[in-house]
Structure formats: structure tokens, C-alpha cells
Amino acid sequence: MSKKHLGRLSGMIEQWLEELMSSYNLDSFEAKNSYTAQIHLRGNLFQKLIWWALKSLPDEILIGMDVDPNSPHNQEVEEFFRSEQNVDGLFQSQGYCISEAHIVNRGNSFSVHHLPEDWTDDIFSSSRGSRAGRFTHWLHTHPNAPAIPSEADADAAQETQGVDMILGLRFSPEGPLPWFDAVEGVRRILGDEAKPIKSEKPKRRWFGSNKDLQVIGIAPSGHKIHEIQLIAFHKSGLAVNVILIDDDGFPYGWEKIKSIHTSNS
Ligand SMILES: [Zn+2]
User: Fold this and answer.
1) CB under 8 Å to 207, separation ≥6 — which residues?
2) Peptide bond before residue 220 is cis, with ω within 30 degrees of 0
3) 3-class secondary-structure state, position 43
4) Predicted TM-score (pTM) of this structure
5) Distance from the CA of 75 to the center of ligand 1, in angstroms?
6) For a tag site, which of 49, 97, 100, 142 has the least CB within 10 Å?
7) What sign results for the dihedral spanned by CA atoms 173, 177, 183, 189?
8) Is residue 235 within 8 Å of 160, Cβ to Cβ?
9) How far is the centre of ligand 1, averaged over its atoms, from the C-alpha of 78 (Å)?
10) CA of residue 147 to ligand 1 center, whole Å
11) 185-242 tens-digit pLDDT
């Protein structure tokens, strides 16, 4: 049975983002054996997270995420991306797609992790029903900084039952947040690292400034996006592989990734 995607319930996904998600998934596949587990995140939700992050500037935002108990990972995909080091039962709700997200807090890199005391009382009672408890997974943003956990991030992750994710964005105009690059750690970039626009006449004066960086996409907030990074990790520090999936549970770029894999084997 063929299905048409007309952006129905989920809203349209930007073409450029779809391409970046395909390339990210290919990287995820090729690096699968360096991960201990995988988690599937819907592309329409991922796009929403990027828009929220940029709309909330200059703050970082903390997002609580839950799985859909009726949406286990597609088994064919799960099998395809399974690591030789795979551990079942590493975290809560492992094996289920992330399908729900709520902004829970905003602040700086420290305060963003400190939730208001009454945060479960009113804000979520209607949307989260009787379970209005803690979320399974968490994501927070790093505006104009790489998606690499700080010490505060690692501390906050100790309370997490599922996984912690970090979304790093490089964008302009920078506002009060110039790109901060001095962080050690493994980066997972969607597509390529931000690079200067190739120009016949290099403008020496502005070389290296965001004015000259290639733009991968424009957000509804008007920001030019130069680079997107996304990582997930378990509180033990183990990295979790993120697979960005469409409404039917298949990774963006699925056919291409399978064909590359098949021709290699
Ligand atoms: Zn952080």
C-alpha cells in the first residue's frame, strides 16, 4: 500500500532539513558500532525542537519528551542500526519512538536544569493526564555552542530515566551569543561543519565571521542556520545513537542507506 505524505498531521518538513536528516542517519548507520543503544525520534518533532530553540533565544530551553507506547521502533530499522555492543534495557522505554515534547524550562546553561517547584502541577495536568510525572527523556539546547555535555549537564542527567539529548545550533544573527567553540568532545553534525561561503574575491576583513558562513536553512524566526548538532547519551555516559524517522517509522534516506550498505557487502 502506498501512502502519500502531504504533511498531513505532522506539518511539512523543510526540504533542506530532510536532506540533513538523511545524511545524519547515514552517519548514524556507519558509526553504529560505537553506540550501546539506539533511539528513534520523529523528524517533524525534531524540526519543532529547532524552531523552539531559536524562538527562545537567548535562553537555553529544556524539553521533556515521552514515547508513544503504541509506537515501538520499526523492527527492520532497529535490526539494521543495531550495534555489535547493543545493550537491551539500558534505559526506560528503550525500543519506543519519541513522539511527544513539551518545553519545561528556560534559562542559562545552569538554571535551565533547575525546574520550577510546581512545574508538574498546572502546566501539564491537562495535556499529560494523571501521569503528570517526570518525562522519560530530556533535551536541552546549546545556542551557538556545540552539542557536548557540560559538567552541569552530566549532573542533571543523573535523574533521567531515559536518555538526555543536546541540540546544538550555530546561527546568525548571533545576538548576545557569539559562537563558542572551545569544547572538547565528540560532535554529531547534521551534514557538514559550518563553512565559509566560497567566493571569487575573499573578503579578508570578514573572514571567519558568521556573515560569510554558508546558510543551510532559514528558520521561521528569521535566523540563518549554519550548523545543527544532535547527540544523545545515557546517564552512565554511554552514547546513544539517534535515528531520525518519518511518520511511518523509517529513517530519512532509508533507501539510499540500504543501497549503500547492500553494495558494500
Ligand atoms: Zn548544556
Assistant:
1) 196
2) no
3) helix
4) 0.88
5) 32
6) 100
7) negative
8) yes
9) 28
10) 8
11) 889 999 999 988 876 655 555 444 546 899 999 999 999 999 999 999 999 999 999 9
Ligand 1: distance of its center to the CA of 187 in Å? 14
Question: Looking at residue 236, what DSSP letter applies?
Answer: T
Q: How far is the CA of 45 from the centre of ligand 1 (A)?
A: 20
- The H helix count followed by the E strand count for the chain is 6, 8
Q: Which CATH architecture has domain 44-77+85-238?
A: 3-Layer(aba) Sandwich (3.40)
Proportion of the chain above pLDDT 90, given as a percent: 72
What span, in angstroms and rounded, lies between the C-alpha atoms of 158 and 149?
Answer: 13
Distance 15 CA to ligand 1 centre (A): 28
Helices (H), 94-213: 125-128, 151-156
Cell numbers representing residue 12 in the block? 511539512
127: three-class secondary structure by DSSP: helix
User: 103-113: per-residue pLDDT in tens?
Assistant: 999 999 999 98
**Residues 48, 179: Cα–Cα separation, whole Å:** 22
